[in-house]
Amino acid sequence: HVSYELKDDVAVVRLHDPTAKVNTLSSQMQSDLKEVMGEIWSNKSVKSAVFISSKPGCFIAGADINMIQSCQSSEEAARLSQEGQKMFEQIEKSPIPIVAAIHGSCLGGGLEFAIACQYRIATRSKKTVLGTPEVMLGLLPGAGGTQRLPKMVGLPDAFDMMLTGRRIRADKAKKMGLVNQLVDPLGPGLKPAEERTIEYLEEIAVGVAKGISNKKVPLTKEKSLKEKLQDKLMDLAPVRKKIFKTVSEKAQNQSKGFYPAPAKIIECVQTGLEQGREAGYLAESENFGKLAMSPESKSLIGVYHGQMACRKNHFGSQRRKADGNGLAQVSIDKGLTTILKDTDVESISRGQEHIYTSLDNKVKRKFMTSFERDVIMSNLSVQLDYSGFESADMVIEAVVEDMDIKHQVLKEVEAVIPPHCIFATNTSALPVTEIAAASKRPEKVIGMHYFSPVDKMQLLEIVTTDKTSQDTIASAFSLGVKQGKTVIVVKDCPGFYTTRVCISLEEHTAIGHSVGLSLSIPLICDEVGLDVILHISEVGYGCCLSLHMSDTCSLYLVGRKSGKGFFLYEKGKNYKNDIYWFHRLISRVVNESLLCLQEGVLRNPVEGDIGAIFGFGYPPSIGGPFRFVDTFGAERLVSIMRKYEEVYGAPFTPCQLLLDHAKDPSKKFYK
Amino acid sequence: MASMLLTTMRSCHVSPSLAMRFGARSLSTTAQLQAQVQTKSKKTLARPGVKNIVLVEGVRTPFLLSGTTYADLMPHDLARAALQGLLNKTGVPRDAVDYIIYGTVIQEVKTSNVAREAALGAGFSDKIPAHTVTMACISSNQAMTSGAGLIAAGQCDAIVAGGVEFMSDVPIRHSRKMRKTMLALNKAKTVGQRLGLIGSIRMAHLAPELPAVAEFSTAETMGHSADRLAAAFGVSRLEQDEFALRSHTLAKKAQDGGLLEDVISFKVPGRDIVSKDNGIRPSSMEQMSKLKAAFVKPHGTVTAANSSFLTDGASAVLIMSEEKALAMGYKPKAYLRDFVYVSQDPKDQLLLGPTYGTPKVLERAGLTMNDIDVFEFHEAFAGQIMANLKAMDSDWFGQTYLGRKSKVGAPPMEKFNLWGGSLSLGHPFGATGCRLVTTVAHRLKKEGGQYGLVAACAAGGQGHAMVIEAYPQ
Fold first, then answer.
1. Which domains does chain A carry?
2. Does B232 touch chain A (CB under 8 A)?
């Protein structure tokens, strides 16, 4: 996985994992690296070294997750961390200067590796991102990251990186002092652009490595007065104390005690700063071991794998064209020519303005140039009529949730679109089968349930009917993936999967939020519009609905559409960390989810978990309803539910699938 | 209108190219004459049904580093000097010209149609219409080809085309916020309103807006793009410095040898007579290698010494239909033949215009690289020229980006920019095109060649190439 060649007195070490798409710090990579470095260090004619990846678009994407997952005990995981610490310590104390030449993702262990090197050069490419995303997997940077990062970029930035897992672009990294030098990506020359860019990066890095070994390139930049002052300030004990206190409080607030990683990260940094490097390393590896064994981390890693799985199209591929504001936005910026059709000029203008503003905000934050914004906008055409639909590959309607209007639109659209064109209906609850009944070609009709706001929410729930063709599903899926969505495919049933589970809760108030449902169910109800939910439950699809909700609706507080909704009602009550409410809510969600799988609405537990987490804000720390059953224990859950059943009746009756799992503990949703 | 005319021209070319394919190119009278006297007996590019357009004369003011002797002038002063020079040199009657077209890039706001302002004061009849075109560094090429289009379409017989650039003074504006306040002040009716507006001015509003030699679409400066381009083609710093030194050395030789006969003397008001370009400075490789990178820091290769410098200058050419020129008793210098405009990615291929334009124009003219005796390429940066040469010499580039089976082939250096180029003579953006064409005509005459090729890159990722044929001696 690691090879090297000598360029004069510079050893160019190339990282390349032939078995995977990206480089990871697998055990193979680590042992190869050790071997190669041993050779280089023992060769007296080598004066400096350059680390570079031969994988296009990836330096090192992080540690090998499987390696962490396969650990049986926290001691074993802690040992992994110690090995990493030891290796990077050696690199940091290397007798010859080492330059990390970074193009593409440099994340987690990859970043820890890079900051152990003496100098870092990164390409100013959009592909180049640096970060410590361990926290998102319920872990911490366990190879010296918690010790080195604060020294390199200062406490505030280090905390920001480690606690949010934010990815940092090359320009920003340079400003923060995370990288020393930037190299611009090149266009095509005598070779393809990407290939030449990596070669160029290597040339520059070799030049710098030589410069460092002849003392022509300084390793540290002269700090400005402001920076020096900042450092002095940070060194003062009371200031530092204050920072730790503020950060801890903030982390506690945001994680609401459901995620142990942030607190551990803060602890490691504090230990290192106050008791020295050795103590810091020890705290880091011990905490890493503990976190790696925590159920939260296991759940989050499961979510990560599930998310990846939901971006793989198993249906084949492609086609295009759509409509609806947010929908249009996520389509045009992926280069899809899109028509936005609406019924009146004001709506069109509002739609266009909405899209423009959100793109323009990206320009202001320097995520794109004004030119890129204009080019993206040029993919959009807005109109009141159906012209141009005759060449559309896919039409997504997003009209109000009213069956008659949906039917009318379907008929109007089908009159103009070509035979191959797919008609997708964006509904959060109306039965797609019924919508499709009005179609001349029901095999081309599919439901695409986007979550609002479409440009922020990453889930797409594709709803299929018995008649929907495989080809149609494939096209819808590939469009979704192209739009950057995590896609789950479910069968049509009242409320599909996400909305059905949502409405299955009769008591959903702000408690949802406090038990860790981040985008709580009431909020979803507000987003969708209470009238819609009321409508579907009135139509009588076996969803129970409390009086409370109809009351709210009758007051015309129809969710976010009217500016008022559930949230207004339940403010002030504090259900924080109430285990009773937690179980009561979760058991309903879990039961309904399992029922969906039992009935064949869901295809598999993975999609169920992903849908729950990204669709209605199920707490990722417990990994989704199915993973929850695995870890919590089906039997235990059934016994809790039986208690509720006595009081509240049928809604808490465990479904057959859950009972099966309770009976046979060897049955697991995840192997 | 120009584009309309160009379209007409293109459609005109359809039948002749067919005729060519059958080898049935009929020769006009002049062409027969030419075939007899031409030292190299190559075919001529004259085509039935297409007017022969000739370059009668071309002149330019000395090109000076901006901020030197021209510093107190205005752009139209320079353009006027070139026009007057042309008038003097050709003795063309003041009303014999049908139309005047000028190219410019950074426009002086007061004289946005600089063609008209210059013509009015240059002694031409005020009955001659004039317009200004802009197409970055190929603006005066556009002025000439627009003129050629007017002649080919039968609209005009004699055209003056030219270009001017004046970098000693550029429009520096108030900030947008300040401008908005000032415009509102104009409309304010009461003292209260005025005071309110004045009160709204903040320090930050006073910061001026400077024009940048940067792409609007990508916000990248041209030098930065050139550095990346050079890196993409693996052009070393040494190669660039060597080419720059070659340009300066050749320019010095040409200047000393009196070859730059297109340069006219210009008496600058309040100053001495200027009669020489002042940017030609052959240096040594040692000195050049000491310079630091100017755009990509610290590892870039484009420096002040291997880039063209900011220049003041103007040029002008007189072009006519062949009959008209002959009827007026002129001995034309050259035929202006096929030309093309190309455009490509403004980010990664900003300066590759010559690579795209050259094979296209040669194909149009039915010529090969070997037929060309004189190459005049615009030298924006030494790195840019070297990158273009490498691109033209690469099979991979030819196949991947030019849709060819193999490479275009690089021009041989012994025919290439032998009298210096933009790097050494200077590069007044809007005026360089006419200099290139006039130089080709002069070199063809001096070196006894038949075909010359002009190629240039321009901001916006555009480019231009034109074939010029020597007029029979």
1. 2-293 (3.90.226.10), 328-492 (3.40.50.720), 501-663 (1.10.1040.50)
2. yes
Give A70-112 pLDDT, tens digit per residue: 888 999 999 999 999 999 999 999 999 999 999 999 999 999 9
Give mean pLDDT, residues B256-281: 95
Nearest by Cα to B439 from B375, B365, B367, B388: B375
Contacting residues for B16 by C-beta, under 8 A, at least 6 apart: B25, B47, B48, B49, B50
Query: pTM for the whole thing?
Result: 0.83
- Where exactly are the structural domains of chain B? 53-170+220-468, 175-209
Shortest Cα distance, chain B CAs vs residue A385, angstroms: 33
**Can you give A12-71 as a three-state secondary structure string?**
EEEECCCCCCCCCECHHHHHHHHHHHHHHHHCCCCCEEEEEECCCCEEECCECHHHHHCC
Whether the complex's predicted ipTM surpasses the cut of 0.90:
no
Q: Which of B229, B390, B394 sits opposite A187 (nearest CB)?
A: B229
**Chain A residues with CB-CB distance to B217 below 8 A:** 369, 371
CATH number for the domain formed by residue range(s) B53-170+220-468: 3.40.47.10
At A11 the pLDDT is 95
Substitution target from B228, B349, B396 for chain A, most A beta carbons within 10 A? B228
Nearest chain B residue to A372 by CA: give it: B217
Tell if the CB–CB gap between A188 and B232 is shorter than 8 Å: yes
pLDDT tens for residues B194-225?
999 999 999 889 999 888 778 888 889 999 99
C-beta atoms of A187 and B217 within 8 A: no
CB atoms closer than 10 angstroms to residue B418: 21
- Closest alpha carbon to B236 in B178, B293, B316: B293
Omega before residue B411 within 30° of 0, cis: no
Pairing of strands A338-341, A380-383: parallel
Q: Which of B331, B363, B388, B371 is nearest to B452 (CA)?
A: B371
Write the DSSP symbol of residue B420: B
Crossing angle of helices A634-648 and A656-663, in 10° steps, is 130
Helix-helix angle A237-255:A225-235, to 10 degrees: 80
Residue A484 touches partner B, C-beta closer than 8 Å:
no
Q: What is the pLDDT of residue A506?
A: 46
